[in-house]
Amino acid sequence: MLNSYFAFGVPIFLMILYLFFELVRIKTSIHYYIGFILLLISTFMTLFSFQVQQTLWTSNIDTYKLYGYPPEILWLPLIIGILLVILNSGRGIKRIYLFQQSRKHGHPEQK
User: Fold this and answer.
1) Is the pTM of this model over 0.70?
2) Distance, CA of 40 to CA of 89 (rounded, Å)
């Protein structure tokens, strides 16, 4: 799990996938579904990075000597994932709020 190809390869692949869907979201008009896909990708990246961190915390090995990278660098994918989850959650909450506001103003007989 702490192999550098696995510990960094999966988050890099997920970032590439995230950027692809972000470009699709910008270029098209199907923001609702793409936004949910972006939230899923960022959540998976966060949970995967946290699982790698837990593996590091429970192991008694020196990652720098065994795998060739300092353990502090494992925080980077976790922090990026958390920021993307916050960004996409904010977008989703804003979209729900705007949808509710448009329904209120679209139906004047309801209060």
Assistant:
1) yes
2) 10
What residue has token string 């103003």? 105
Chain segment 12-58, per-residue pLDDT in tens = 999 999 999 999 999 988 777 898 999 999 999 999 999 999 988 88
- DSSP of the chain, one letter per residue? ---HHHHHHHHHHHHHHHHHHHHHHHHSS-HHHHHHHHHHHHHHHHHHHHHHHHHHHH--S-HHHHHSS-GGGGHHHHHHHHHHHHHHHHHHHHHHHHHHHHHHHH-TT--
Distances (CA, A) of 35 to 42, 44, 70, 78, 95: 11, 14, 34, 20, 10
Please identify which residue in the block is written with the tokens 């007989």: 109
